[in-house]
């Protein structure tokens, strides 16, 4: 019987497990940024190499894969994909458009609020996928450029997603790692995002006001055209519509009282998904096919890649260096928020968040890390506004616009995006500082 070969201490003696972990991490990150290979494949490749080399022992993989994050995402994906078939989201879009009564400025404001609210409770990409075609149609009816609407939709989606535990993947990861509840996110980040949304809407109105002007006669004609739209016709399955609304309301309500129920957010999402599938009698095969499996495998592989940095002590070393060179909790909070924001404008905020989470956990021995979690969430979620590739919602909206004949260049987006990034992160860090340092 052939003898099973096991890595000798030579792996660490010649190269060192720390260097291998760092090299694989950087290589995986480079593949994710390059985008020629799907990021799920890149993460799985990196994880496979690390497990093969015994940098991460096979038996320790469950310790590093955060099932709370993966099951929460899975549950919400099932709920959204089931509800989508009812026409619920198209109903909301048409209802919002009719409330605008032909005013482009009112459309901008109302859709910003609706986008932010939906993104706070559902996946950002799903939100913009459903609302963007409606905004393009409304702009064509108004005979004005859809640019202001689409740019505002992107920012509103990212701001709204930052307000809650389930609004953006970085928040899901942070909440699971730090044991933070839905209400804690809502209390600590919700007010900040409301202020940011109001400020950003005001900024964008000033930037695009000339492109939003239409005559009174034109506005009256637009209002008539929009009034002819029937939101009831958007409902494709009235029974499923009612059941979807009821289950989404139930899930959101359970998130609010999760402390009293003693349930994890992931379990709440899976309960909601199970109830909706059972109640609606939708074919599970069709719903499960629509789950974003590549995203879930991406998370799983990424957790292992970052876990290698924890396993080898690399994260602990970096955390010790930061602690020794940062003189106060407030200083650490500002560094984490601004570093995460700038970095998230350039690279995917999911692997960035996965890397910074164990770093913050490693700082727990010398300072209270509670404010640092909010700083990380703030920077990772709002940093995506900076560039056209900073967040998935940005890429999706600009892609749909390009297919419709509207090309928004990287530089054109950058001019507005970086302004929004610096203003929103500045407001956020100022309010966090006031809450955790001053008061």
Mean pLDDT: 85
- Got a strand count? 0
Largest sheet descriptor: none
Structural class: mainly alpha
How far apart are the first and last residues' alpha carbons, in Å?
69 Å
> What fraction of residues sit in β-strands?
under 5%
What is the succession of H and E elements? Answer: HHHHHHHHHHHHHHHHHHHHHHH
How many helices? The count is 23
Helix content, binned percent: over 70%
Radius of gyration: 23 Å
> What low-confidence regions span 5 or more consecutive residues with pLDDT below 50?
1-14
What gross morphology would you assign?
A: globular
Structure, briefly:
By secondary structure, the chain is mainly α.
Tell me about this structure.
With 439 residues, this protein is an all-alpha fold. The protein has helices spanning 10-15, 17-34, 39-52, 61-64, 67-84, 88-99, 104-121, 124-142, 147-161, 169-178, 182-208, 216-227, 238-256, 258-261, 265-280, 284-289, 293-311, 314-325, 329-344, 349-362, 370-382, 392-403, 410-438. Helix 8 (124-142) packs parallel to helix 22 and helix 18 (314-325) crosses helix 20 (349-362). The radius of gyration is 23 Å and the shape is globular. The termini are far apart. The model is unreliable at 1-14 (pLDDT under 50).
